[in-house]
Amino acid sequence: MAEKLEEKCKRLIQKHEYRECEKKLGEAMKKEPHSAIPHNLMGILMENEKDHILAMKHFRAAYALDPAYIPPRYNMEQYGINCGYREYAYSAEDCPVRKSINHPIEKK
C-alpha cells in the first residue's frame, strides 16, 4: 500500500530530511494544484525550517483552497498565538475536537 503524503512528510520532517520533503511537496503541488494538503504540509516544513512568514502563507493558501479542511486552520491558530511547544496537524486526525463553545479544545 502506498504511503500517504501526510505520513511520508511527517516521517521526513521528523528525520530532518527537509530537502526530500520539499521535493515531494513540490511534486504534489504540481500534480494536484488545487489540493490543500501539500500547502498545509509545506507550512509545517517551513515552521521546522524557522520561516514563520512563509509557513503562515502556506497555511493560508491551504485554507483558501479548502476551508472545510481542518488542519491548516488549526495550524494557523497554533502558530499565530502560541509560543513554545506546539502540536502539528499533519492530517485531520491530528486536530482536536471542540466539545462546546465554552470548553477548551480537547484531543480525541
Structure characterization notes:
This protein is mostly helical. It has helices at 5-14, 18-31, 37-48, 52-65, 70-81. Helix 1 (5-14) runs antiparallel to helix 2, helix 1 packs parallel to helix 3 and helix 3 packs antiparallel against helix 4. It is globular, with a radius of gyration of 14 Å.
Class derived from helix and strand content: mainly alpha
* Sequence stretches where pLDDT stays below 50 over 5 or more residues: 98-108
> What string, H for helix and E for strand, traces the elements in order?
HHHHH
From the N-terminal CA to the C-terminal CA, the straight-line distance is 26 Å
Q: Describe the sheet with the most strands.
A: none
Radius of gyration: 14 Å
User: What fraction, in percent, of the residue positions are helical?
Assistant: 55-70%
Q: Give the overall shape, derived from the CA principal axes.
A: globular
Mean pLDDT: 84
Essential attributes:
about 110 residues, single chain, mainly alpha, 5 helices, about 55% helix
